Every structure is written in structure tokens, then in C-alpha cells.
């Protein structure tokens, strides 16, 4: 199938694809992506923009032009197959966002220009494997997230009923309570900022906070991390197994070819001996 696809390409399409996929060109694109990300960071500094704003904008537009040229060449080389690759579509969307005029109603798109740095993911196989592993674990994460939401909801209802009247700024409604419990789960100032003030009014409130931290932080969050690690590990071992199978198939094909050559050689020797 790959051979047929390769033959179906015109001479110039193959030349263009070979040029774009060249190692030197790809490393140059990586350098430009990193440089562009640094320039976008510099543009957030008012003093630097006042002194070198024109130059930075010119360099930014030049790099964007090179990115557009790269995409155009890839589309020419691969045709509609370009849009069948999710990573190529991602690159296309990121560059397309940069081309939308940043008017007041679309000013958020100017901030989204920094998404160009995410194109680095498409340039390195190791990054793509990590992202692929994260995406593959989404079904399993859905169960963990559902469990977290259930625990949060039950805890929020309990905390609002227990502490809402005395501490409305922390537990006055489901929204405030959920945010407070999220802060407790992250262990950010949960003791001095939340638990101890509540315990001055409700001495036994420590029971609620301790149980919530044990369940939400030490069990659920670690379970969340374990699912991600297991998915990445399984993905890596799966790729290793696939590579091993491919090597085995290749060796088996070579052995069959050698056996065929031996049969032909044996037949030739027998034929020569009869003469």
C-alpha cells in the first residue's frame, strides 16, 4: 500500500516531500519554532516592544511566512493525504489561527499565537508518543474523573450544610465550597487558611477535613496518576512488541527466501550431476 502510494505521486511531488522531510530542513523548522516562541514572550514586555517592536514584529511575520510555506509545500507533496494525518491538521489549525486578524472581537486569537510552539510535538517522536499515551488513557481517566466529581459533590453538600452559615466566604454555596475543597485537595494553605479557622467554631471539623484529604488527595489523585503512568507504560511496551513482531516477520521472510534459493541451488546441483 505504501509502495502504491509512493508510485502514485508525481516526480515533483516526491521531490517536494523529500525536501520538506529533509533532516536539515526539519531541524531548521524546530529552531524557528523555538525562536518564534521566544519572540512571542518578548512581545509581552512593554519596554522591549517600545524599543524593538518593529523589528520583532517583522521577524515574527517572516517566521510565520516560512511556516506557511512549509505547510503549502506539504499539501502540494501529499495532497489530500495531508488532512488525513491528525498532527498535520493540528499544524494547519495553529497556523490558520495566526492568520486571523486580531481585532477587538478576536483579540484572544493574538494570545493563541503562542500555540505555535506546540508544533514541536509533531517534530519529535518521543513527544508524540507521550501525547498519544495520554489520549489513549482518556477512557480510563473518565471513570476516575467521575469518581472525583462524585466525592467533590458529596463533600461540598456536607460542608455547605455544616459550615455555610458561619463561613459564607468559604462555604456559602456550592460554588464557593467546591473551590474551597479544591484548595484543600491541593494542600494549599488548607490548615491555617481554612481548617483551623473553621475548627475554632466547630472543634470536630478536623474529622471532615482529614477524611476528605485522605480520600481526595492521597487516594484519588494518586489513582489518577497511576492510570496515566500505566497507559504510558502499556503504550511503550505495545510499541516494543510491534517492533519485535516486525523484526520477526522480516527475518521469517528472509529465511523463506534463503530456503527457496537453497532449493533452486539443490535442483541445479542435481541437474548438473545427472549430466
Task: List strands and helices in order, with pairings.
Elements: H1 2-8, H2 11-20, H3 23-42, H4 46-78, H5 86-99, H6 108-111, H7 120-123, H8 125-136, H9 138-163, H10 168-171, H11 174-185, H12 190-201, H13 205-274
Helix pairs in contact: 2-4, 3-4, 4-5, 8-13, 9-11, 9-13
Explain what this protein looks like in three dimensions.
The protein has 13 helices and no strands. It is an all-alpha fold and 275 residues long. It folds into two domains: 2-123, Up-down Bundle (Four Helix Bundle (Hemerythrin (Met), subunit A)); 138-258, Helix Hairpins, CATH 1.10.287.70. Helix 2 (11-20) runs antiparallel to helix 4 (46-78), helix 4 (46-78) crosses helix 5 (86-99) and helix 9 (138-163) runs antiparallel to helix 13. Mean pLDDT is 82; it is low at 1-7.
Span between termini: 46 Å
**CATH superfamily grouping of the largest domain:** Voltage-gated potassium channels. Chain C
The largest sheet is:
none
- Number of structurally distinct domains: 2
- Count up the helices: 13
The H-and-E topology, N to C, reads as HHHHHHHHHHHHH
CATH class descriptor of the largest domain: Mainly Alpha
What share of residues are in beta strands? under 5%
What share of the residues lie within helices?
over 70%
Q: CATH architecture of the largest domain, please?
A: Up-down Bundle
Using only C-alpha atoms, the radius of gyration works out to 30 Å
The third-level CATH topology of the largest domain is: Four Helix Bundle (Hemerythrin (Met), subunit A)
Low-confidence segments, ≥5 residues, pLDDT <50?
A: 1-7
Specify the structural class. mainly alpha
User: What do the pLDDT scores average to?
Assistant: 82
Count of individual beta strands: 0
